[in-house]
Design brief:
Blueprint: H1 13-16, H2 53-84, H3 87-114, H4 117-140, H5 146-175, H6 180-208, H7 211-219, H8 223-231, H9 253-263, H10 267-282, H11 291-297, H12 303-328, H13 334-353, H14 357-385, H15 391-402, H16 409-420, H17 422-443
Helix pairs in contact: 2-3, 2-4, 2-5, 2-6, 2-7, 2-8, 3-5, 3-15, 4-5, 4-7, 4-8, 5-15, 6-7, 6-12, 6-14, 10-13, 10-14, 10-15, 10-17, 11-12, 12-14, 13-14, 13-17, 16-17
Length: 457
């Protein structure tokens, strides 16, 4: 992809001037987001992003933070259940985790366009630390009340928003467009490492230290990323002159509308946001909350052991997907992402209808592989095609769809499951989603490219 006028990238400086003429790159040409500096379309490298020392440090810090996030969930959810026995608080925990992404992701992206994303991520890490320490003090002093728990759960969700879109903008700063697909894929893989390690470490902390001291120790896992970001040579000050254009002023809800208008003609971005949004709204990971029931129905006696194995299969598939895709250096392609997503729907539906425990494990492993594949591919394409002055806003819009809409995914799987059974509710939801994705593939996916771009197709 080269800088210049292109028919398949219909936005131009006029489109971005929705945000203000001063932010339109001052180039007077269309905005192509993968520059000639990214090199030619040579053979992809395996684990390419890991060759960059800065990215290795950033990946390690993020993996620790993800593990700490998971540890906090394990300890605080257990503590809240033991103290309050409130299903309503359990439901609020899910809503408070995802709703801030729906409401504030685009705002966080706008802030990342305007200010240094390193500092925004540090704010997110600081909020995570505050939540862990506050939980610890309240439990230690036996003064925890339900409203304390609700406020801390909500703050925890807001911390994730400060971490999300700004952290993705920072990935682009660290690796550039050529290595971006590898970096996004590895970051998604590290998330599953954290999700696997977090429950094990959290359970060990509960047994060895108890919940208040375990949470106190957990707060320190956020420190490496905070300290590294303090002097990391990335962000606006270190960008090239063309990429260092400061984003437009933050305007709240108007940013969402203006961003939608600016990307409305770019089929790759629009189709990936729609794909991620529909998947999150209809299925997402809502079926994981039903794993104890699936494990019991699959007839392996001890439902808790079955629950652990089923969750591990999904995560193991995602880890395998990240490693395999990195080993082959698969380039992100919109049509391939749609294909992965449609097969993922079939795997989820097959799992829901399966009465064989080994088959269910195999289908969940496959689903984890495919979910990481299409989600990381979609996120890479959104970043690669986003105009530099509003990259944070576009990533925020993607996060709003892909993460924020998860707040409602329990309706199709959980509430409908209480009426017709979880097996039928999950299978029907997956098949309905399959129909939506097939429709998007036909009418929204970009056509097959004639030439291969250096970072994406």
């Amino acid at each position: 992809m080269t800088v210049g006028a292109r028919a398949d990238m219909p936005w131009n400086t006029q489109a971005v001037q929705t945000f203000g003429a001063a932010t339109a790159l001052n180039l007077g040409i269309t905005l192509s987001t993968v520059s000639t500096a990214s090199g030619g379309p040579g053979a992809p490298q395996s684990f390419a992003a890991l060759r960059l020392p800065g990215y290795r440090a950033y990946l390690f810090g993020n993996a620790l933070a993800m593990m700490a996030d998971s540890i906090e969930h394990v300890i605080t959810y257990w503590t809240a259940f033991q103290k309050f026995h409130s299903p309503a608080l359990g439901g609020f925990a899910v809503i408070s985790h995802w709703l801030p992404f729906l409401l504030f992701s685009t705002l966080a992206g706008a802030l990342a366009d305007r200010f240094d994303p390193r500092r925004l991520v540090q704010i997110g890490m600081g909020l995570f630390m505050f939540c862990s320490i506050a939980w610890s003090v309240l439990i230690l002093t036996d003064s925890l009340q339900m409203w304390h728990a609700a406020v801390l759960l909500l703050l925890h969700g807001c911390a994730g928003v400060f971490w999300g879109p700004p952290g993705q903008v920072l990935i682009h700063d660290i690796v550039g467009p050529k290595q971006l697909p590898s970096a996004v894929r590895l970051m998604a893989t590290s998330r599953y490492v954290g999700l696997l390690a977090g429950p094990a470490v959290g359970a060990a902390f509960l047994l060895i230290f108890g919940s208040p001291y375990g949470l106190m120790i957990n707060a320190f896992f956020y420190l490496p990323l905070i300290l590294w970001l303090w002097k990391a040579p990335y962000g606006p000050r270190f960008r090239s002159a063309a990429a260092a254009v400061r984003g437009p002023a933050v305007r709240g809800l108007a940013d969402i509308i203006a961003t939608i208008r600016a990307i409305s003609g770019e089929r790759t971005i629009v189709s990936m946001i729609l794909l991620s949004g529909t998947a999150s709204l209809i299925v997402a990971n809502a079926y994981q909350a039903q794993m104890p029931a699936f494990g019991a129905d699959l007839g392996h006696g001890d439902a808790s052991a079955s629950y652990s194995a089923l969750l591990a299969a999904d995560a193991a598939g995602a880890l395998t997907g990240g490693i395999v895709l990195e080993a082959y250096g698969l380039r992100p392609n919109a049509r391939t992402a749609f294909a992965f997503a449609m097969v993922w729907c079939c795997a989820i539906a097959g799992f829901a209808l399966s009465s064989s425990y080994p088959l269910a494990l195999a289908l969940l492993f496959t689903a984890g592989f495919l979910e990481l594949s299409f989600n990381s591919m979609a996120q890479s394409l959104v970043q690669l095609h986003a105009p530099p002055p509003i990259r944070g806003r576009v990533i925020g819009l993607y996060s709003m769809a892909g993460l924020g809409l998860r707040a409602f995914s329990g309706i199709t799987v959980g509430i409908m499951g209480s009426l017709i059974g979880i097996h039928w509710s999950l299978s029907i939801s997956a098949l309905v989603l399959l129909g939506f994705i097939a429709f998007l593939f036909v009418f929204a996916a970009p056509p097959r490219p004639r030439a291969t771009a250096p970072g994406a197709e």
